[in-house]
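cron nightly-structures :: item 1 of 1
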Amino acid sequence: MSFLTIGHRGVMGVEPENTLRSFVRAEHAGMDVIELDLHLSKDGALVVMHDAEVDRTTDGTGLIAEQTLAELRGLDAGHGERIPVFEEVLDAVRSPLQAEIKDEAAARALADVMHRRDLVGRVEVSSFHDAALAEIKDLVPGVRTALIASRWGADIVDRAKAVGAESLALNIRRLSLETVEHAHGEGVKVIGWVVNTQDHLRLVRALELDGAATDYPEIRRTGRFTA
């Protein structure tokens, strides 16, 4: 298994998260994969944002699901950046992507884009929602998926296998060698998030993880050496 460095929402430690500016910088930094988050707007657009509300990362307020794409486009997402739609990211960078389904309703819209643009080889789909991963597997045969968890029980590997996920993306602050060994024993890869410090990198190496999601471009260079 090759070690992957994943740009978390682009490189959100140095650029506005989930913006084209952040994704382009992540690609220029040489990230192996760029991670982003997906919600549906009121009018069904597949928009790239982490939170369900726009308040934290833009100059607007309110739920994404209650605003049209045109309304969302009017917001400043940082340094004059606009909230992108998924297909704009596909066109802005060439890197492999990890698309996280934040809103379960986005699974079908994502599946439509993946079919239309033949993205099975380029896009891995991730989610905290087991049902969303099961749905995307059904809608897009052959798609690679990752089950995300911040807190989890002893059944986490079984959950991943039950929905056909090839990888687990787990909070590195709660990750144990026992969980990693169990996953690897079942053929499931383990990615740690969010890896932003030297202590985190040492833990990545000790746990023999398959990859790390990071907010900072310099972690890729250090991570290649450390891990």
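cron nightly-structures :: done
The chain has a mean pLDDT of 96.
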